[in-house]
Amino acid sequence: MRGAKSAKWVAIAGVVALTATACGGGDSDSKGSGKVDPKGIVSYANGEPQNALQPSNTMEAYGSVVIDALFTGLVYYDKQGNITYENAESVKPDKANKVWTVKLKPGWKFHNGEAVTAKSYVDAWNWAADPANGQQNSSWYRDIVGYDDVHPAKGKAKKKAMSGLKVVDENTFTITLNSGIPYYAYKLVYKPFYPMPSAALKDPKKYGEAPVGNGPYKFKSWDHKKSIKVDAWSGYKGEDKPKNGGIDFKAYTTPQAAYNDLRSDNVDTMPLIPDSELANFKQDFGDRAIEQDFSAINTVNPAFYSKTFKDMDVKVIQGLSMAIDRDTIAKTTFAGTRESASGWVAKGVKGYKAGACGEYCKFDPKKAKQFVKDGGGVPGNKISIQYNADQPHKGWVTAVCNSITKSTGVKCVGDPKTDFQADTEVRDKKQVKAMYRSGWVLDYPFNGNFLADLYGTGVDGNKGGFSNKKFDELTKKADAAKTIDESAALYQKAEESLRDSFPGIPLWYNKTLSAHSKNVKNVVFDQAGDPVLSDIEVFEK
Amino acid sequence: MGRYVARRLLQMIPVFIGTTLLIFIMVNVLPGDPVRALWGDKPPDPTQVAQIRHDRGLDLPLWQQYLHYMGGLLQGDFGNTIAGNRPVLDEITQAFPVSMRLASMAWTFELIVGITLGVLAGIRRGRFVDNTVTLFTLLVISVPIFVVGLLCQLFFGNELGWITPTVQDSENMGQLLVPALVLGMVGLAYVARLTRTSIAENRQADYMRTAVAKGLPRQRIITRHLLRNSLIPVVTYLGTDVGALMGGAVITEGIFNVTGVGNLLFQALARREGAVIVGIVTVLVLVYLVASLIVDLLYAVLDPRIRYA
C-alpha cells in the first residue's frame, strides 16, 4: 500500500529542499552538551508488516522500512535524482539500452557469512518471478527477456529461469530487456531487485520470519505486533554505515498513539504526523519538527469513460482546473503542509520541471468560467469527486468542490466510498461517476514514472481510461532515447503535451511531516518518504 | 439442573452455525477484494491474484468455502490470513489473552465500584451521596469514551508523566490499568444506576420490613436480603458486558495501543480478512453464549424461586 497510504506518509526531495532538510532534520536542535552514543538504539513508530519479510513480497510501508534496513541493493539515488552505486560497482547498458551489465563490488557478504555474488541476485529474481512462490512484486521483472515463460499470464511457470538473466562470473551478470529502457537502472532501486542468500530459497517461510540480508542492519527478533529489532552489522561494506546501534521498529495500531508517545519521548520518530495534529505539531515539537519535500503528488482525475466526461471538450477540464484555489486550500485545510502543484510530475525526481501545467494550474475564476462555457459546459452542470471516507479526504474534497462551484457555477459534490478498498474496487471496475481523487508516490525518481506509468494508453496505473495518441508517441520516443538525460528531457515534452489533453488535475505536492524525540538527532527522510535510519544519532542516556 | 445445562449447550450449536454463516456471508458481500487489496493502489498482478485466490480457496463458490471453513474449524483450524498467510489461530491466541486481561480488569472494576456506588446511592436515596452518584454516572455516560481515554492519556501520560501514554507491553497488568479503568467507566455507570434503582425499589418490599422488624443487623439485611434480590438485573448486564468488553474495546485499544481483539477485528475488517473476522466472531459468540448461560444459572442462586428443570 505504498500508494495511497504512503501518499499521506512522508519524505523529501529536490535541490531546493536540501536546505530545508538540513535544518528541518537535525542539528539545529542538538543540545550541545549531549554526547552521542554510537551503540544507542533508535525506536521508530511502525506497524505490523502485512507479509512475511521477503524483499520481493513487500510493498506496504511497514514492511518496506524494515526490508530497507536489512538490505542494500545494487543502486540508489541522491537528492538530485541521480543514480548512486551501492552493492554494484557499475551498472552499464549497451548502446541500445537493452543489455545491462552489472558488476558487483567484491567482498560483500550476507549477515550469515555467505558471499553476495551475481548468483545471489539472479537466483533470487528467478525465484521471485515464479507465481508459485506468491511474491507480490514479481511484475517488476516484466522488462526482462523470458519473464513471460516464468510468469505467464495464466497458469504455472513454463521455465524456472528468465533467459534474460545470465551469470557471467562471480561478480558479474547481465540483464537483457525486451526493449531498450534508458533509465532501467532506476528501477533496480526497488525492493524486488535485492539479493537473497541461498538459504532463503530453500526455506522461504522460515526466512520470511527471520530474514538474512546484506544491508547495514542485521535482523535480531520479530515479536509479532509488538516490535521488530535489528542491530547494526559490523561486517557491512557499504557507505551508509549505521551511526547508531540498531533500530527498534515498534508496532503501533494508530498514528495518534504513536504521536502521543513521541511527545513523551517514548519513541524516537515516526513516519507521519496524524492529520488531527497537523495544526499543532510544530508547536509541540519546536525545532524537532520535521518538514521536508516528498516526491508524491495529489490529483483529481476525470473518468474518461463516464457519462460526464465522455467526449468532453478538454477546455472544460482546463476550466475546472483553473477554478481551484490551490494555495488557499493548502493553507486552510492542510495548515500549510502541502504545496500547490504546477505539473503532473512530483518534485525531487529526475526530469521534474516546474510549471508544466502552465496557466491551467493557476487560480483564475474568470477564465475558468469562460473556458467551461466555451467548452460546452458539463452535462447536467454537475460533477462529483470520489474519495475514500476512511481517511481524511472529505475536508479538501469539499473545499475543491466549493471552489469549482463558486468560480464556474458547476455543481460539485463529494462521492464518498466507505473505505479505500471500496474506493479502489469502483475504480478498478471503471464505475466512477465523474472524477476521483488520486495520489502517486514515486517508485523510482524519474519523471517517466509519473507519466508513462499513469497516463499511457492501457497501462495498469491508468485508472481513468485516459488515452492520447500524441502523448503515447512522445513517451515511446522518450523510452527510445539514448541516455537518461535525453529521456528525461523527452519526458518533459510529453508532460507538457498533457496541457492539451488534461488526464488529471494536479493539486498538491506532498510533504514529509514528522518530528523526533529529545533522545536523537539527524532525523532525515528521503524522497520516497522513508527515514534514513543509518544516519540517526542517539544521545547518551 | 443438569438437563437444563445440557439443553442450553445443545442450543448453542444452531446459534453458533447461524452466526458464523451470517458473518461469513456478510464479509463476502462487502465491496472490496482482500487479495487485490494487497497491492494497495498500485496495479495488481493478475497472475499472482489468481494464484493467491486459488491457494486460499477463494475461487470456490461461497457455500463450498463455508463448508471448508467449518470443516477446518471442527479440527481446530481457523484457516490462514490472506495477507502474510499466517494461521488465524495464531492471531487469535495472541490477541485474546490481552483482551481478556483488559476486559477482566475493567469488568472487576465495574463490578466492585459500580455495585458499591449503586448500593450507597440506593440506600440513601435523595440524599447527598445519591445525588453525587447520579450526577457522576450521568457525566460518564454522556461523555464519549474516546474523550475520557484521550484526556486520561494526555493528562496522566503527557502532562504528569505517571504512565507512558500508550501501553508498551500489552501483557503488563500495571500498564493496562488506566486503559482498563477507561474501558470499564461506562459499564460502571450503568451498573451503579441499575443497582441503585433496584435497591431503592426493593427497600420498600415486605421481606425487607420483616427483616428489619426481626431486628437483624443492618449489614446482614443489606447483603443477604436486599443486595441478593436486587442483583438480578445487574447480573444480566454484567454477563452480557463480558462479551461487549472483549470485542467492543476498539476505541480504548486504539488510543492506548493495546493489541487486543477489538483492534484485530477492526484491522481485519479494513482488510476484508474474512477468516480472521469469522474466527474472532466465532470465539466472541462462544464467550457470549457461555456468559449468558452462567447468568441464567446465577439467577437460581440469587433467587431460589427460579428453578431449572
TrEMBL record, chain A:
Signal peptide stretch: 1-22
Solute-binding protein family domain span: 87-459
Keywords linked to the UniProt accession: Signal
Single GO molecular function: peptide transmembrane transporter activity
GO biological process: peptide transport
InterPro entries attached to this UniProt entry: Peptide/Ni-bd (IPR030678), SBP_5 (IPR039424), SBP_5_dom (IPR000914)
GO CC, one annotated term: periplasmic space
PANTHER family, per the entry: ABC TRANSPORTER SUBSTRATE-BINDING PROTEIN, PERIPLASMIC BINDING COMPONENT OF ABC TRANSPORTER
Name listed for the protein in its UniProt record: Dipeptide-binding ABC transporter, periplasmic substrate-binding component
Lineage, uppermost ranks: Bacteria, Bacillati, Actinomycetota, Actinomycetes, Kitasatosporales
UniProtKB/TrEMBL annotation, chain B:
CDD domains: TM_PBP2
Subcellular location: Cell membrane
Gene Ontology BP terms: transmembrane transport
TM ranges: 12-30, 105-123, 135-156, 176-194, 234-256, 276-302
InterPro entries named in the record: BPD_transp_1_N (IPR045621), MetI-like (IPR000515), MetI-like_sf (IPR035906)
Family per similarity comment: Belongs to the binding-protein-dependent transport system permease family.
The protein's name: Oligopeptide transport system permease protein OppB
Organism: Streptomyces formicae
